[in-house]
Amino acid sequence: MSNNREQWSSKTNFILAAAGSAVGLGNIWKFPYIAGENGGAAFLFIYMICIVIIGLPILNIEILLGRATQKNPVGAFRALSGKPFWTYVGALGVFASFTILSFYSIVGGWSVAYTIEALKGFTFDTPQVAGEFFELKNSNPLWIMGYHTAFFLGVVGIILSGVRAGLERASKYLMPALFFILAILVVQGLVLPDANQGVSFLFEPDWSKINAQTFLLALGHAFFTLSLGMGAMMTYGSYLSDKDDIVNASYLVAFLDTFIAIMAGVAIFTVVFSSGYDPTAGPGLVFHVLPPLLSQLTGGYFFALLFFLLLTIAAITSAISILEVSVSYLVDEVKYSRKKATLIMGTLVYVASIPCALSFNILADVTFLGTGLTFFDMADYLASNFLLPLGGFFLAIFAGYVWKVDEVVKNLLIGNSRSIYFGNSILKSKSFVAVLSFLIRYVSPISIFLVFLYQFGWI
Ligand code: PHE
């Protein structure tokens, strides 16, 4: 274990930081709109199954690989396998961190912009008007670049401050704030007229809405929302000590992440249904539909402000975990100082994100060879539908066949002592090991493989 490597100051702070990474735009912006488009409760049900049988085991493994090696993804795979192939898998994570942040920080910029618009007070009567406003603003490269830059500088500033002063302190205050704001929005949503329609949309499954696509989207989203497949959790795990309990931390992070997605779903669908809007409005659901709806409620000014503040907070705590992957890579492998690594990676990602920002104006017509996808769309598509599941696939293969499940369990037991949920006795039981082994060796890789076949149109 390297001596000068910073560590979390307490287990709670690690959990807050890991939850801060997991809870992000994926929960508040993405989950409601894909659930809205895919049958609500039916999607939620399948997504939760994916979280439990695929997401949770991979979450444990990622954090574990980080803690066991105390290294970034590239260094972690090199330390454990010694084979160049696995180093490339780590490098894939660094590349994914780059790709995700290049579009994620644009949405982060929108959240900042809408927080400021909310502060001025929204004046839209309908989603149409709000939609036109959104398009108009984005057609101005300076507007989008300005807010994107503001968001980005915030993220870089936190990373520069280091693990304890930066990552930890940010999550420690921002996460509880986020939870609190969301709780207010849920209560406010539930007392609206016809709120029960929104609630039943989210909790009463219409099984006829389920098809292969639902399953695949749910799986992909499980990766994205738990920050899996690119080494973010591995990097956070690398700042943990052997005394920390990974199994229960993973359980809690997955629970919190799902709980917050559901809270966001309730907050949004109660408003949507109460006003008779369409839950399948798509990615615009948050930016087009919520400002007019929220601002028309009693006290709407504050709810609108709270909501976008919440979105910004959630985006920041996730974005820092994305950038941290590439920064820790440079710090560990190239031996750069944290400051130098942050400035280099920050600049590179910033440059990479410029085409994404310009995808809404100057470069709107530049699309990738016949796909119709702009730079922004492509970064999103590549990350969520390809890079993360691919990373997850290799993680499962690595843990199941190279590192082996016995070694995984042996390592999981380290630090796992006085457990409330998954104590030593459970981890040691033969049936637990058998189930874990089955999930890691077969269920995860095969499901992910099927996703790929589907993505490429081969099934
Ligand atoms: N989990 C984050 C979200 O839901 C996104 C993310 C993906 C963060 C991958 C880190 C790594 O918004």
- The beta-strand count equals 0
Level-2 CATH architecture: Orthogonal Bundle
From the 3D structure, determine the CATH topology.
Answer: Hydantoin permease
Give the ordered list of helices and strands.
HHHHHHHHHHHHHHHHHHH
What is the highest CATH level, the class? Mainly Alpha
Cofactors, ions and other ligands in the entry: phenylalanine
The main β sheet shows up as: none
Structural class: mainly alpha
Q: What share of the residues does DSSP label as strand, in percent?
A: under 5%
- When the domains are counted, the total is 1
Gross geometry: globular
Number of H- or I-type helical stretches: 19
- What percentage of residues falls in helices of 4 or more residues? over 70%
Return residue spans where pLDDT drops below 50 for at least 5 consecutive residues: none
Description:
The protein has one domain: Hydantoin permease, CATH 1.10.4160. It has helices at residues 11-22, 25-37, 41-69, 73-81, 84-120, 127-138, 141-160, 163-190, 195-203, 212-225, 232-237, 246-274, 285-296, 300-333, 338-358, 375-402, 405-413, 424-428, 430-455. The mean pLDDT is 87. It has 19 helices and no strands. It has 459 residues and is mainly alpha-helical. Bound molecules: phenylalanine. Phenylalanine binds at residues 21-22, 24-27, 100, 224-225, 227, 230, 232, 318, 321-322.
Concise overview:
By secondary structure, this protein is an all-alpha fold.
